[in-house]
Design brief:
Distance between the termini: 55 Å
Shape: globular
Oligomer: single chain
Helix content: 25-40%
CATH class of the largest domain: Alpha Beta
CATH architecture of the largest domain: 3-Layer(aba) Sandwich
């Protein structure tokens, strides 16, 4: 293998799980070189059967390798330039293992194991190119620990992480400083439109604000508004509808805190097509979303029906196959929906048709408008005028998230709910979850909005448990 390249470029040895996690990882190492051991190819081959995401990615990785290698069979030893196949994303070269490598592995490591063979290749490369940095890239934590224990460089595959630190994630809300109006109130214009007051203001904080970001100020005269437009150093803010007041209730639900009020302003706004609500258990994500959905489906007829889907990842052991139709199979996963419908359909003693009969009739009407769908059958579908709720969205990968959101046809609103502290999927972290990804990518788009709900409203017990446990 020819390694007379500039020593400042690194040589990355890819573990199989990186390719199975993101087949496009071959093009993500910029000017550095990539080395794919024979064992990695062997493991790709072993994992290509089936319909799972992993099998699909393994096949995709094999196809990409085939495309890259085609036509360069003679020069594999010298490295295949990646510039052309990657559309100039990567400037490095791809090396495949072309010779048997008998790396001197410690006697404690059984050579039959694929991971150990890849570590053997690493040791061989390190000895062969002492001037170059040879780094193992693996998503397997134990593999990285083993490599480091043997004095080798190892790191995680970071390219799929949207944020290194989830504390930096956009919250959708911004507190204005106490002197905000002194520094921004000069030349302020204000006018009224459709029951809202709008302000055009200029000042040093304006360039940092994003469209559809909520701004607020506490104190004796609280101010709550949403940024409607931004151009240069000026923004247009619009005051909010107050959903904490009984007269503005949504399907009998009122906002109990500031963030819930922000969330309802997004959910009830037909101009906002995509909404993400983050928050720990009991902050009211599902309840607010369902209340807004029922109002706009059954009362204002803006949407024809509500569709709810969620990832079927069990917290404990799986309970095996379930009998029945798609709807019936999804029932165990939809306990949260049932609980919220019970709250939303509490009997109104004073109203007409009260009592159990009226309640049962309303429940039937509500159920006829709510469809529960499995994620597995979403490809190729288009939803027209639907209110699509993606629950537990933190368990989705960015790719699955894209598949779901691109189902939206004209007149459809998509709401993603989740809590990135509760990820049940083994290979996702807070930084690489699809929910983190869409919050980060959609911020500032005029037809999307995001709110991180802070305060639990479930019960004093639930709030205390969330704090101390």
């Amino acid at each position: 293998m020819n390694a007379k390249k500039h020593p400042s470029t690194k040589l990355f040895v890819l573990d199989t799980n990186v390719l199975m996690h993101d087949p496009a990882s071959l093009f993500r190492f910029e000017e550095h070189d990539i080395f794919v051991p024979m064992m990695t190819l062997e493991e790709l081959d072993n994992n290509k059967k089936g319909m799972s995401e992993v099998a699909r990615n393994a096949r995709q990785a094999s196809r990409m390798l085939d495309t890259i290698v085609a036509g360069f069979e003679d020069s594999i030893e010298h490295g295949i330039p990646l510039e052309e196949p990657s559309s100039e994303l990567a400037k490095g070269r791809l090396f495949l293992q072309t010779e048997p490598i008998n790396g001197k592995l410690p006697t404690t490591l059984p050579t039959a194991k694929a991971d150990n063979q890849i570590i053997g290749v690493m040791m061989h490369l390190r000895d062969k190119h002492p001037k170059r940095e040879v780094i193992l890239v693996s998503k397997d934590i134990n593999m990285r620990i083993k490599a480091r224990a043997l004095g080798l460089d190892a790191q995680d595959y970071y390219n799929d992480k949207v944020l290194e630190d989830t504390d930096l994630l956009y919250t959708g809300t911004r507190e204005l400083p106490a002197d905000f109006w002194d520094t921004h109130g000069k030349d302020m214009e204000s006018w009224k439109s459709e029951g809202h007051t709008l302000y055009r203001i200029k000042g040093p904080l304006c360039p940092d604000m994003l469209v559809n970001e909520f701004v607020w100020q506490g104190g004796d005269r609280p101010f709550h508004a949403i940024v409607r437009e931004r151009s240069g150093r000026s923004v247009v803010m619009e005051t909010l509808k107050d959903y904490t007041h009984g007269k503005n209730n949504v399907w009998g639900i009122m906002a109990r805190n500031r963030e819930q009020n922000f969330a309802l302003n997004l959910l009830m706004n037909p101009q906002v097509d995509f909404i993400t609500l983050l928050g720990q258990a009991g902050t009211g994500k599902t309840l607010l979303t369902l209340a807004a959905g029922l109002t706009q489906t059954l009362e204002t007829k803006l949407y024809s029906e509500i569709i709810i889907t969620r990832v079927t990842v069990p917290v404990g052991e799986d309970i095996g196959f379930l009998p029945g139709t798609e709807e019936e199979k999804m029932t165990p996963w939809m306990g949260a929906l049932e609980d919220n419908l019970d709250v939303l359909n509490k009997p109104d003693e004073s109203g007409p048709g009260g009592g159990d009969w009226g309640r049962a009739a309303t429940m039937d009407l509500i159920r006829s408008r709510i469809k529960v769908k499995s994620l597995n059958f979403m490809r190729g579908r288009t939803f027209l005028n639907k209110y699509l709720i993606i629950d537990e969205a933190q368990n989705l990968t960015p790719k699955q998230m894209k598949t779901l959101i691109t189902r939206a046809g004209p007149g459809t609103k998509v709401v993603c709910l989740g809590n990135i502290a509760q990820i049940d999927t083994p290979y996702l972290t807070e930084g690489s979850s699809g929910l983190t990804y869409v919050v980060d990518r959609f911020k500032g788009w005029p037809h999307s909005g995001h709110v991180t709900l802070m305060r639990g409203e479930r019960s004093r017990l639930a709030d205390h448990a969330a704090e101390v446990l």
